[in-house]
Structure formats: C-alpha cells, structure tokens
C-alpha cells in the first residue's frame, strides 16, 4: 500500500502534470504543423516546381518484383521527399517555438524592469527616520 501511495504522490506532482499537458499539447501542435505543411505549404511549392509532390519523391534502389506470387520483393527506396517535408515541418515548429520563447522573454523582461514599490511599512519607517534625522 505504501508504494501505491508514493506513486500517487509522484504522479500528482505539479511537474509531472505539467509535462503530461505539454506532451498532449505538443502532439496536437505536431498534427497542426503536419497539416499546415502537407496541405497548405507544399501544394504551392509543388505547383511552383511544376507539379512535384515532394512526399512522393524517392530514389529507387531496387524496384519491386511481383512477377512471382510466391516470392514478392518489396521496393527498396530512399524517400527523400518525405524527408524534405519533415525538415520543413521541423523549421516551422522551431520558428513557432522561437516566437513563443521570444514573447515570454519580453514579458519577463517587462516584469523585471518595473521596480517593485516598497511595502507601506518600509515607506513609513523611512519617513520617520528622515524626520528624526532632521530634528535639531
């Protein structure tokens, strides 16, 4: 029973929950970026390059051989088009994260730049000290 209690305490810590939320949101963000690249960015690039679908680009090392049904040989190829799509997705994700970090850093700098007002009791004590200094 003790181990179950320890596990519950571990799983309910703020860091673990934050990590879980980050993973779920990251997965959803990845799907959005994949859709953006595959359905919005790559079609115009393919159109500009003469109708090339990057996801289908490949270098065939050994073609498939289906002539003998007993010994089907799958195609062996290097799919560099899918790699190009993945690199574009990475660049978009990296740029989006860069923009988020930049915005967060800007907010943190604004908070650090604004000096905090001293508490009222400190202001009152400072005034009393100054009045006592100026007494004859």
From TrEMBL:
Membrane listed as a keyword: yes
One cellular component (GO) term of this entry: plasma membrane
Organism superkingdom: Bacteria
Assigned keywords, A-Z: Cell inner membrane, Cell membrane, Ion channel, Ion transport, Membrane, Transmembrane, Transmembrane helix, Transport
One GO molecular-function entry: mechanosensitive monoatomic ion channel activity
Compartments in which it is found: Cell inner membrane; Cell membrane
Record carries keyword Nucleus: no
InterPro entries in the cross-refs: Mechanosensitive_channel_CS, MS_channel, MSC/AndL, MscL_channel
SUPFAM superfamilies reported in the protein's UniProt record: Gated mechanosensitive channel
A Pfam match: MscL
Family annotation (HAMAP family): MscL
Subunit-structure text: Homopentamer.
NCBIfam families for the chain: mscL, PRK00567.1-4, PRK13952.1
The family this protein is said to belong to: Belongs to the MscL family.
Function, as annotated: Channel that opens in response to stretch forces in the membrane lipid bilayer. May participate in the regulation of osmotic pressure changes within the cell.
Protein name: Large-conductance mechanosensitive channel
């Amino acid at each position: 029973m003790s181990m179950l209690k320890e596990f519950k305490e571990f799983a309910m810590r703020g860091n673990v929950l934050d990590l879980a939320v980050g993973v779920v949101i990251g997965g959803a963000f990845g799907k959005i970026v994949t859709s953006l690249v595959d359905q919005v960015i790559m079609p115009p690039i393919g159109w500009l390059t003469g109708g090339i679908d990057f996801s289908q680009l490949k270098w065939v090392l050994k073609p498939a051989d289906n002539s003998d049904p007993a010994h089907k040989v799958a195609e062996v190829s290097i799919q560099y088009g899918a790699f190009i799509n993945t690199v574009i997705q990475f660049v978009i994700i990296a740029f989006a994260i860069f923009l988020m970090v930049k915005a967060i850093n800007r907010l943190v700098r604004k908070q650090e730049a604004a000096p905090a007002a001293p508490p009222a009791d400190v202001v009152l004590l400072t005034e009393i000290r100054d009045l006592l200094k100026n007494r004859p």
